[in-house]
Amino acid sequence: MRLAFRVLRQFEGKTRLGPVVWVRSVSDSPPLRGVVNDNKDIKGVKGEQSWLCASSVPVLQTVRGHVEVRENFITEEEENALLKELEPGLKKKRYEFDHWDDAIHGYRETERLQWGSACAALLGRVRAVAFPEGSPLLGPVHVLDLDKAGYIKPHVDSVKFCGSTIAGLCLLSDSVMRLVREENPADWVDLLLSRRSLYILRDEARFKFTHEILKDEDSFFSGQRVPRHRRISVICRNLPV
Ligand code: OGA
Ligand code: MN
Question: Is the CB of 102 under 6 A from ligand 1?
Fold first, then answer.
C-alpha cells in the first residue's frame, strides 16, 4: 500500500536560495518487510553485477539500465575532502530520532551550493555520468548523515520537486538500498552500496519503486551481512521538466 502519509520537510541550510520543501511519500508495506527482512536466507537472483540482486529475473530486466552502482567512484582522498567540508556544519546539528512519521529515522541533514575545488570537481563528474545532457539540475546538493542506528524507510522522492534521476555518493559505510515495486511489493531489488560508491536511480526505478536504506540489523545483501555504520550520502537530483 502506498502513501501512508506525506512528509513535508524543510531544509535549514544556510546556502539555501529559497525555501526548498521536500515531499516524501512513505510506503507502509508491513507484509513485505516481514517476508524479506525476517528471512535472511532469501538470496533472490543475482544480477550480472556483484552489487545487484532481485526477487526474480523479470524484475532484474525491468530495472536494467535504470539502476547503476559505480564502485569506488571517488578515492579516499576525495571522500576525506567531502568530509572535511561537511563535518563542521553537520556536527552542529543533532540527529533526529523523534519524528516517528518521518521517512528517515536517526538523521541530520543539510544542503550545499558552494563547494571547494576538489569537491566541485568530483560533483561535476557525478553530474556528467548521472544526468541526461541538458537536464536542469537542482542547484543545492543534499547531504544526509545517518547515525549508526538510523535508517531510511521506503519512500518515493517527490515528483513535484525532483526529476527523473537521483544520484548519490556513499561515504563512511557500506549499506543496502532496497527498491520495492509499488504495484507489487513481491518485486524487490537490492543494491549493495559500498563505501565511496555512486548509485544512480533513473525513471522506472525512481518512479515505480520505493527506495529505502536498511537499518543495521536488517542489513543483508544476498544473504550476506553488510554492517551499517554511520553513513553520509551526498545526493544530486535534477528538476522535473
Ligand atoms: C532521500 C534518500 C538516500 C541516501 O534522502 O530521499 O532516499 O542514499 N536518500 O541517503
Ligand atoms: Mn529518497
Answer: no
